[in-house]
Task: inverse folding
């Protein structure tokens, strides 16, 4: 019985000892739990920080990529604006259309939006803008080709016109030359011209105080080209001092588009045959000593001349 008591006592002591040691073990367990939790939290924070840094770097890289892409699209749009300037021609209507397309691009570039939004807008519009610009390029190339052909045709026509004009001028010159030759050929020539100072009896006297008049005789030569009919033959007597003798200030006729004075005239019926005739001028007191010139005119041409001396 004593032995059973001792065993019961020992068991109670062991239980009390276990009760004393239990709080200390629980605290150690809690501390360990907190440490583990703290480590896990630190690891989580580190992971989150790493992820945040990595994400930020990726966002920076992405922003740079987006900015570069936006700038590239912006440059392409600006290049299109410049391209429209190079397409402008002398066609005012077409130039208005080109300026309208440039304004569309400027309005697109002026939109305030984020890089992503601008990229989306630019990409959305660029395809249409490229197609529109391509159509204008084709249209202008076609116009340029047509203009080039027209310019070549105009040059060819101009060359032909110049050639025709040259030929016309040459023909006109030939006609004028032929006409001039015909006119020259149609002139009646006066030949065998003699100038004789005579007295009242018809005797030759070369002294002024003894002569009655000047007799100018000549032959109008046969000319089948000139028209037949009545015409005047005019005589001009020019003194040594270049004065033209005349009986009236109204004695005028036309010669080479000028109106000049004549000394005397005579009407003749010309029948395209040789005609011998004389024209007389009286000694009216205007004669002076020296060498004179007697010139004959008909149909507006000078037909002959001779010189004579008076004493």
Result:
């Amino acid at each position: 019985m004593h032995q059973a008591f001792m065993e019961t006592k020992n068991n109670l002591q062991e239980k009390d000892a276990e009760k004393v040691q239990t709080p200390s073990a629980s605290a150690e367990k809690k501390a360990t739990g907190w440490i583990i939790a703290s480590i896990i939290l630190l690891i989580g924070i580190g992971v989150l920080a790493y992820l945040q840094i990595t994400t930020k770097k990726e966002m920076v890289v992405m922003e740079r990529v987006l900015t570069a892409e936006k700038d590239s699209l912006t440059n392409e749009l600006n290049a299109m604006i410049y391209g429209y300037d190079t397409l402008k021609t002398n066609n005012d209507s077409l130039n208005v259309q080109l300026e309208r397309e440039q304004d569309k691009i400027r309005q697109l570039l002026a939109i305030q939006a984020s890089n992503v939004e601008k990229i989306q807008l630019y990409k959305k519009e660029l395809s249409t803008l490229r197609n529109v610009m391509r159509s204008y390029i084709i249209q202008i190339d076609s116009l340029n080709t047509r203009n080039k052909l027209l310019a070549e045709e105009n040059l060819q026509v101009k060359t032909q016109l110049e050639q025709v004009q040259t030929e016309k001028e040459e023909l006109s010159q030939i006609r004028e030359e032929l006409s001039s030759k015909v006119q020259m050929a149609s002139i009646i020539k006066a030949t065998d011209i003699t100038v004789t100072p005579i007295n009242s009896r018809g005797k030759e006297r070369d002294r002024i105080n003894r002569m009655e008049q000047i007799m100018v005789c000549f032959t109008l030569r046969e000319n089948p080209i000139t028209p037949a009919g009545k015409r005047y033959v005019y005589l001009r007597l020019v003194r040594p001092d270049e004065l033209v003798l005349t009986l009236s200030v109204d004695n005028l006729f036309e010669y080479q588009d000028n109106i000049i004075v004549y000394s005397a005239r005579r009407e003749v019926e010309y029948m395209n045959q040789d005609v011998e005739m004389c024209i007389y001028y009286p000694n009216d007191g205007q004669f002076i000593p020296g060498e004179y010139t007697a010139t004959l005119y008909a149909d507006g041409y000078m037909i002959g001349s001779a010189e004579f001396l008076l004493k």
In short: The two ends are 217 Å apart (CA to CA). The beta strands are 190-198, 213-220, 229-238, 244-245, 252-255, 258-261, 264-270, 275-282, 290-298, 301-310. The chain has a mean pLDDT of 81. The longest helix spans residues 2-87.
